[in-house]
Specification:
Elements: H1 15-27, E1 28-30, E2 36-38, E3 41-42, H2 48-62, H3 65-88, H4 94-107, E4 112-118, E5 125-130, H5 133-136, H6 147-161, E6 165-171, E7 180-186, H7 187-191
Antiparallel strand pairs: 1-2, 2-3, 4-5, 5-7, 6-7
Helix pairs in contact: 1-4, 2-3, 3-6
Length: about 190
């Protein structure tokens, strides 16, 4: 079952989201040197404005090449997260795995994740993020701002289907759209012109 609209931390929440948030907090540790860890991995908690500042300075220095860096970084991160999701999903339904991804997206501050369509055999998907922190801090833009998210989705969907995926952001809140919407396609299909 997808996370319902309005299910946000600090607003109306479902019991499942509250449980997921508690589980997240329970998985956080601080070591004796002051290092914050989530599931044993070094972790930072930053506002989206910090990321936006990094993105702006990267674009100033690298130009449009910054988009590729963000996409590829997100893709590597997504492959890792996707592999963990796939491993954890053994013996569970696709629906429960998607629910876990939706819940993790929400409680980690990425916004509400909506799977509009997903074909698990091909990986083709349309995915929306409501209230993306990357687009929200971007102001008015003439192009999509969620390259890290697009790359992340390519990695996650690729882990699910065992193929390289390409994800393009079709609409972005930074451009005035209501939601950030992404389309996932198999990379081989696009490069072969099929």
């Amino acid at each position: 079952m997808p996370v319902p609209p309005g299910d946000v931390v600090g607003g109306p929440t479902t019991k499942a989201t509250q449980k997921a948030l508690k589980d997240l907090v329970d998985r956080l540790t601080i070591d004796e040197d002051g290092g914050l860890r989530l599931d044993g991995l070094p972790t930072l908690i930053l506002s989206a404005s910090v990321f936006r500042s990094i993105q702006q300075e990267s674009e100033r220095i690298l130009g449009r090449g910054a988009s590729a860096v963000l996409y590829l970084s997100g893709e590597a991160w997504g492959r890792d997260a996707g592999a963990r999701l796939v491993a954890a999903a053994k013996g569970t339904s696709l629906e429960s795995t998607i629910e876990r991804l939706q819940s993790q997206s929400l409680i980690r501050g990425f916004g509400r994740l909506e799977i509009v369509s997903f074909n698990p055999e091909t990986g083709n998907a349309v995915i929306r993020f409501h209230n993306s922190p990357f687009a929200a801090t971007g102001g008015s833009s003439n192009r999509p701002m969620c390259q890290l998210t697009a790359g992340f989705l390519a990695g996650v969907v690729g882990a699910f289907v065992g193929e390289e995926m390409l994800v393009a952001e079709r609409t972005c809140r930074a451009m005035g759209a209501d939601v950030c919407e992404f389309r996932a396609d198999r990379l081989g299909r696009l490069t072969k012109g099929v």
